[in-house]
Amino acid sequence: MKHFQTFALIEAVARSGSMRKAAEDMNLTASALNRRIRGFEAEFGSPIFERIPGGVRLNPAGEMVLHHYRMSKSDFSRVQSQVADLSGERRGHVRIACSQALLPYFLPEQIAKYRAEHPGVTFTVKVRDRAQAEQELASYASDIALVFEPVYLVDFEVLELVPQQVHAILRSDDPLAARKELRLWECLDAPSVAPDAKYGVRHLLEFAARRLGRSLSPILETESFELIRHYVLHERAIGFQIPIGLQAPLDGRLAFRPISKKDVSPGSLILGQLRGRTLPVASARFAMQLAAALHRE
Amino acid sequence: MKHFQTFALIEAVARSGSMRKAAEDMNLTASALNRRIRGFEAEFGSPIFERIPGGVRLNPAGEMVLHHYRMSKSDFSRVQSQVADLSGERRGHVRIACSQALLPYFLPEQIAKYRAEHPGVTFTVKVRDRAQAEQELASYASDIALVFEPVYLVDFEVLELVPQQVHAILRSDDPLAARKELRLWECLDAPSVAPDAKYGVRHLLEFAARRLGRSLSPILETESFELIRHYVLHERAIGFQIPIGLQAPLDGRLAFRPISKKDVSPGSLILGQLRGRTLPVASARFAMQLAAALHRE
DNA sequence: TTTATGCGGTGCAAAAAATGCACCGTACCT
DNA sequence: AGGTACGGTGCATTTTTTGCACCGCATAAA
Fold first, then answer.
1. Is there a single domain that holds both residue A153 and residue A193?
2. What sections of A219-279 are H helices per DSSP?
3. Which residue of A181, A259, A273, B273 sits 20 to 30 Å from the alpha carbon of B45, by its own alpha carbon?
């Protein structure tokens, strides 16, 4: 939208820390950009950038301005979306920040389902860890978040919460695969393939292991859940993941077994939005669909 | 602010119901205005005005756009005010909607007191009845409201509440003036001068009279509290008012006596703002001063 | 029914605003 | 000391906005 143009320029400058770089990003010359910034500052009544050697940086006033911009922009697009909705168009764009575990099965299925009913709606999916996901909401960069074991929960409004028990991922020919449920110490005895420390699954495991006086010493530690799933096919090892990210492949070479609740307490997969915010129609409806689907999980 | 210009034009058109009139108000030609409106509608994706014979009218989409604008504008000026504040300037503008009773003594004193400390702050005072005052807040036309016995209280956040007993206004030579406190039936026997039905004082009196099986039959009914105060000097009659709007004139010709709480229950004088809104610095500080002053009443 | 008035909308030329280019002074880094 | 990259500015150029004149249309008065 045109009336936000100056703010968009400000945001670009803030992001790149340099007027010239921002000017290039936004397809105009540094001089024009410079004048717009200075024009805004004059009109606003106070500088919003601190001029530092090598570039510029937002000052506190600028931070406030930028926050105002992001709020306004998001509210405006909400209005736009609601208007489109009441004219029966069912258009819109949904921005989601989610944990990795939702990528292989849950989200693609849900998005496809939604788009089957509303082909005019488009999606942006950002993969974020639990801390970043909340940041995404707070800066109005995403509309809804779907994360496992979020951390702060400030300004985070829970729309749906579903407990997820940590599961072990192992080869189906592994002796342990014969069991219905595994105990944690059984898993700790085997070589393990674990997600990075920033993930909720790892956190739950470490906590539970410490309670047993043991510790997790993975032979492979990674940020990629996909790598975990595939690695256990190549070496006898145990991976960990929550069930929503798991689905038995057709060839039957992998098995998933829950770890006993006596050892590892279930974590929460949480669907949420920024507290107090009114979402655009498409996002709100999609969030409702997600909530219903999670409820059935 | 320049980036709100198009919205300001939209607001002007909505207010006057005509592009040509609005164009004149905003000092540009109808053609330019027309193009800006159409340009906005195109960019927005939907018409916001309904073209009717004789002019235009906002459609529901337009209502939403206008509401977004008023919110954004108010938030932007809050940011501006906070920035000015943190640079130590103490500038700003406070917009108040209040009941008539506050005009003679309370508000002028409070405003003068505030301006003595912060000469850079200016004020707008709108006199509104209790229903209109809440409307003022909801449309972001005023920052704070100070009203007697507000009606709806939806989206109205109470900052301070002070009970006010209805007082009778009479000539000091009236026999009843000898009493410390009056009973309602005494007042009903005398000719009365009452505020209009939309005011809280009248409402409380009617309610109390009905409880006694009596009714108020004023010889003079008016919207002007000032007229009430002055009329009782000319004919033996009883006026009604809350004490915050009363202060004995120097010549001692008027007397004010509370009506017994046994007959008329006290009403509430309420200071409030729009629920959930963050006020500009000056308004917030002035509201705090008002709250403190009311607390002492 | 005719006429008159006022409305929104449009083509075109003039005015205003934003932009691009070339250049300045300055602070930092090598 | 020299090189580089930064923000800022004067001026010609381009883009956008505006004003004027005018159209078609609907309502209201003659």
1. no
2. 225-231
3. A273
